[in-house]
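Tutorial, part two.
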Amino acid sequence: MPISQMRKPRMKQRVSSGPPSKSSDALASQRPRSWKMADVSNGEQGCASPLELFNRIAAQGELVRSLKAGKAPQDEIDSAIQMLLSLKMSYKAAMGEDYKADCPPGNPAPGNDSGLGATEAEEDFVDPWTVQTSSAKGIDYDKLIVRFGSSKIDKELVNWIERAIGQKPHRFLRRGIFFSHRDMNQILDAYENKKPFYLYTGRGPSSEAMHVGHLIPFIFTKWLQDVFNVPLVIQMTDDEKYLWKDLTLDQAYGYAVENAKDIIACGFDINKTFIFSDLDYMGTSPGFYKNVVKIQKHVTFNQVKGIFGFTDSDSIGKISFPAIQAAPSFSSSFPQIFGDKTDVQCLIPCAIDQDPYFRMTRDVAPRIGYPKPALLHSTFFPALQGAQTKMSASDPNSSIFLTDTAKQIKTKVNKHAFSGGRDTVEEHREFGGNCDVDVSFMYLTFFLEDDDRLEQIRKDYTSGAMLTGELKKILIEVLQPLIAEHQARRKEVTDEIVKEFMTPRKLSYYFQ
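Running the prediction step on this input gives:
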């Protein structure tokens, strides 16, 4: 969850450069997960390909027929019909002709310039399990913003954050690693007017060892906690891992505890941080479970199938899980922290592949009397083999793991880090390297704090003055002490410290 990686049935999502059309949070939350839909209060939405629209219309028509045949409540039938009409309007706008059930969109006619869009739509695939792109530069995040209907974190917003906190913004903001947001302006308004908000992020504990990519949301969340001086809740979705992975309940909970040690080693303030296991907490917190039930009541099976791609063969545990991930977005899920306050807004730092969960949450929030959570979206941390894919915990050579030794780090970088250099030293000196595709340089943008040094490295590598081996050496010198220091801090995290972080209790914060 905010939340770096979470996962369900594999349905690849297309990302294209199509223009946004109009919709609402509710409409976006009902779209299939293979769509890049918007979730904006003022009604912006993404635009699906004609074939996706055609398939969605067919599915929605079947739903209308089944609702009528089952004598469903009239308001539910009317809502489904309204959705069907809206989809048909979108199809006509995209194709220039009415939807016909027996005429799916085929190849574009000669002279039809929609062919380019179709090609672009096939370039990037993003879902919570798979990130693939034909570009060695990685995902086109500007297109992704258009498809999701979120807002770009621009220079103006970064400057506002700097003014609000009175210090230099985090390098993840300065360098566009956190690149997209929803309602961050509301959070800044609240902070400047001394109104409360809190942070929520999380981890799906699928294995004992975490890699450096898993640290990105936690590094940034710790900074947010420090500069805004606000409480933080961290959800460990061990229940989800039990449902989706071949794990026992004890194994899932054990991974949650081990991952919590790595998270605590990032330096979170124990007086302002509550880490909780779903398997533990939901059984002891009526407030949390009541919110789960409220969310479940307001999301239909049809909606959750559309958002997450569930099928009739999926367990009911999977179908109900999104409500559990949504519940920490509401302050009343933590009465031990917030008392009877139900209106404390939540800010969620997460990787952008988690956005479907919170589009659903933002749709439900006003219907159950809570403020919509705000979000900050990060880019994907690239695999050593290149930015076309995400890292895999099952492939030890796809990333640097927090358990790696200094020797293993050196070997992995030298052997596996994709290079933007030329084939020969002579060519490299003449033409220079490509920082846009070089994984060593990408990793330095995440972990090298000094902006001036990073820019000098970029210039030297691009000009050919710096060779690939020299660039990799710099990265190794940055990563080795970073991982060693993390390992040293983790050794100091005892089971007793984990238990204290995971004990429901009152936290310290300025709006007490």
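The radius of gyration is 23 Å. In part three we will examine how such features are distributed along the chain.
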